[in-house]
Amino acid sequence: MSMLTSGGPVKVLVVDDSVLMQKLMTQIVNSTPGFQVIGVAGSAEEGWDAIQELRPDILTLDMELPGRHGLKLLARVLKQDPLPVLIVSAFGGPGADNTIQALELGAIDFIEKPDGATHTLEGFMKHVAAALQRASASRRLMAAAKEMVTQQRPQSAPARPVAVHMPANHGKVSLIAIGASTGGVPAVQTVMRDAAHLRLPIAVVQHMPAGYTAKFAARLSAATGLDVREAADGERLRPGMAVVAPGGLKHLEIEERRGELICHLKEAPLVSGHCPSVDVMFHSVARALGSHAIGALLTGMGRDGADGLLAMRKAGAATLIQSGETCVVNGMPKAAFELGAADRVVPLDQIGGAIAGLLGERPQQRTA
C-alpha cells in the first residue's frame, strides 16, 4: 500500500532503457523522503508487465525507448487506469516533440535528463524530487475523484462556478491572458481551442524550460488554427494570434504602445519561483489593459499567477480559474481563489465558453 492510504511510501516504477539511468533514478527516488522504487523496466513491454504486477502509484517514463514505444506505453497506461506519469526526457531536440506529445496525452510533468552542461546532476536530482511531490499531489486528487465517482457524492466547493453578475462585453476586451503549470499543456490547448473563434490575441505563460516552448507553440497552432508562436521581444500582437512565453531566463510582459499590444521580454530573477512567471505577465496585463482583458489561471502546483490575477481583477479585468476537480494539481487556482482573485471558478471544458459569454458571443460548437 502507498502512503496515499496507509502511511507507507509512494511506490514508483522506473522505465528507462539505460541501466545507468535506472540506477540513478532509483538512487534519487529512494533518497527522497516518502518515495520508494518498487521496480525498474528497460522496455515498454517490461514496463507494462511491471505495472500489472506491481501496481505503482507513480510511473517515470523515458520517451526515447526504441520505436517510439514510450508514447505507446503511455497511451496504454492512461487508457486503462490513469496514474501520474513523469516523463524523463533528453533536453530539446527531437526528444522535446515526444515530450510535448506525451504531455498532450496526459502525462502530468517532465524531468530533463542531465547533459553535464546546462543541466547538471545536482539540478536533475532537485527536479526529480520536486516532480515526485507534484505527482504525489496529483495522485491524491485522482484517488479522491475516483472515490467520489464510486460513492456518487456531489462535487465539493469550489467545484461549482461562483455566481458573479458581470455584464457582457466587460469593457472592450483586447487580450486573453492564460497561465498554467503542471498539467497545463492539454489544459491550455483546450481553452485556446474553445476560444479560437473569438479571434482575440492570447498571451500564454506555461512553465517550461528552453527547448520546449517553441514546439509547444507549434502544436498549439496546429490544434487551434491560430497563429501561435514563441514570443519575441518587440513583437506586435494581432487578432487571431497567440504567443507563448519562451522558456528560460526571460519574463514575458505585455505593453500597450500607441494603441498596439507589444511583447516585452526581460531578463530578471525568478518570480514566484519561476521564469517565465505567470505573475509577471498578469501584472503587466493589469497595468497595460486594466478592464480590457480576461485572465485565466489553470492547473499547476504552487501559487504563481495568484497575485497577478488579483491585480488584474482589481484593475477591472474579468478573471477565471480552473475548478479544482478538473485540475491535475489544484495549487495555483486554489491560491488565487483564497486571495479572492477569481470572478468565476469554471471546469476546464467550460472555460472557453465562459470567455465567449463575457464577450457576448456564443461558445464554439465542438466537433466529434
Q: What does it look like?
A:
It is a single chain. The chain is of the alpha/beta class and 368 residues long. The protein has 2 domains: 10-151, Rossmann fold (3-Layer(aba) Sandwich); 175-358, Methylesterase CheB, C-terminal domain (Rossmann fold, 3-Layer(aba) Sandwich), CATH 3.40.50.180. It is 39% helix and 21% strand. The chain has a 7-stranded parallel β-sheet with strand order 8-10-7-6-13-14-15, sandwiched between helices. Helix 9 (306-314) links the parallel strand 13 and strand 14 (318-322).
Task: Give structural attributes.
368 residues, alpha/beta, Rossmann fold, 2 domains, seven-stranded parallel sheet, five-stranded parallel sheet, elongated
